[in-house]
Amino acid sequence: MTLMQKLLGATTALALSAGAALAEPGLIIDLGGKFDKSFNESAYNGAQRWVKDTGGDYIETELSSEAQREQTMRRMAERGANPIIVLGFANASTLEKVAPDYPDTKFAIVDMVVDQPNVQSIVFAEHEGSYLVGMLAAMASKTGTVSFVGGMDVPLIRKFACGYAQGAKAANPDITVIQNMTGTTPAAWNDPVKGAELTKAQISQGSDVVFAAAGGTGVGVLQAAADEGVYSIGVDSNQNYMHPGSVLTSMTKRVDNAVYTVFNTAADGELPTGINALGLENNGVGYAVDENNKDLITPEMTAAVEEAKEKIIAGEIEVHDYTTDDSCPVM
Amino acid sequence: MELITIIQILDSTVRLATPLLLACLAGLFSERAGIFDIGLEAKMLAAAFFSAAVAAMTGSVWLGLMAGIAASLVFALIHGIASITFRGDQLISGVALNFLASGMTVLIARDWFNEGGRTPALIDGGRFQEITLPFANALADVPVLGPIYSELLSGHTVLVYVAFLAVPATWYILFRTRFGLRLRAVGENPGAVDTAGISVVRLRYSAVLIAGLLCGLAGAYLATGLAAGFVKDMTAGRGYIALAALIFAKWRPWYAMGACLLFGLLDAIGNRYQSLELLGLPIPTQFMQALPYILTVVILAGFVGKAIPPRAGGQAYVKER
Prior knowledge:
Number of helices of chain A: 11
Radius of gyration of chain A: 21 Å
Largest interface: A-B, 32 and 31 residues
Oligomer: heterodimer
Largest sheet of chain A: 6 strands, parallel
Helix content of chain A: 40-55%
Mean pLDDT of chain A: 87
Structural class of chain A: alpha/beta
Order of helices and strands of chain B: HHHHHHHHHHHHEEH
Distance between the termini of chain B: 64 Å
Mean pLDDT of chain B: 89
Strand content of chain A: 15-25%
Largest sheet of chain B: 2 strands, antiparallel
Low-confidence stretches of chain A: 11-21
Low-confidence stretches of chain B: none
Distance between the termini of chain A: 58 Å
Shape of chain A: globular
Number of domains of chain A: 2
Strand order of the largest sheet of chain A: 2-1-3-4-5-11
Radius of gyration of chain B: 20 Å
Strand order of the largest sheet of chain B: 1-2
Strand content of chain B: under 5%
Number of helices of chain B: 13
Helix content of chain B: 55-70%
Shape of chain B: globular
């Protein structure tokens, strides 16, 4: 079996290299590891899907400490990987320095803009995806109050919160949106106890749908919502399976699609550089419906959200992006 | 403010104060015996991880609790060996244990569960369930007292009641038993205890191990009572807040309960209101979060009273020079 696979792999790899004569793409998994249930795992899944679909091969390394960023990036470039994908905003300053030294190698960075001639910057329209789940939250709420639990208080998380609030108000202008941030230090990403406590406080203020954009803290939010019998909304990856029947939906950020596309376009030829904005129109963000939550989303809800989605894509609805002016019109 | 809101905030206070209280009492035992323990955080974290891991694997929260306590005891023992037997610096040993716990738990979690340093979410048997006290539902409709009984006192996990019972127990052990007298003496003047023919080393070890037991309960409560599973660094500084509470309480059990409840209350209010208006002045939630530390500094500066640590605290005992 394994021998067979190897043989098959070898022949396809041979065929590919004969056809395109291109270097293998590289993926640097960021801190947190490739099974983090969220950001990195999504990227890894995208790469695996590409391998399965095209039979191609790629080089992968995993960072184990902050100090390895530059070394790992350089080594990847010197091994001849092209293009190289790095994940997360923390890589921006390193890539700024490394990219000019390898002008023939193309890089792609997720979640941050790096202005170099050989870098593609992939940014997601989190506010648009949050808008849609905000609408779903408002429509699913019976109490007229929905809430948001953020991780560390940074502009990116406020972008989620602001989009969510706008969506909720669009579906129900009278709705109350409660917003809490877990903290102001990186510890806020890993405090499920505080997340659960914030959720319980929000529930006692009447909230019956809680959206968590809080990394590991979100685990506690989803758990508390399930314990108290209210709805929650997951983030980044599809987290509907974590508490079937309680997780209303998940605001998905398709890092896997981004990785898949970069690998694919690179295999076809040149990787375009500059800013690559992924939003609703190209399924960069969205909301997840699967067998775990299909009974929670009514046809009316789907219709309303799909309509809003079309309008956002067409430009008829403009969702305010918190990071453009550091303020939110509805909060 | 409505009664029910106040009760909800107090209910949250009790939940948030419980891990602090257990850790604070742990620190109390250890420091009263003259062993500074900055590694409360480490013991709680190790206990949180092993309780969640074992509960996830066996499905039994009680086995998880045992594993958590065992892990915490091992850490306590390391601290004891370093600072009692080998007379190392107690602060350095504690700091080292904090780093060890933070790295080790994630490493083992990755290896065992492949979930990026987490344990799987615990299902019902793997968590402590809330206990409904007798007649809680029947009395819920009684005005004022009903909700206080059914909401505030009832409906916590067993470890909450254990934590609050540990306060009078600690007071009794420390101030009404021979063991307690000797334990306090060993923290004030170990030479005198030794002269009386009592082993300083054995007393200090037992204090450190009691601290390990209590931290084990605190960690298990975090991972299997409040949350449902372990997440990297989930203690989030509670061990240090407990130390602050210990100083705030001037190393006394009842005051420790008061300090932990106060810190829990500040936390609960901060969770409930992102910004608070007091006499027309907006108070940001960050201020509420910082308040425990500010209060401790105020105490240490001597404004509210003098906090005098046990006199032999932080010093290894050397029998003869």
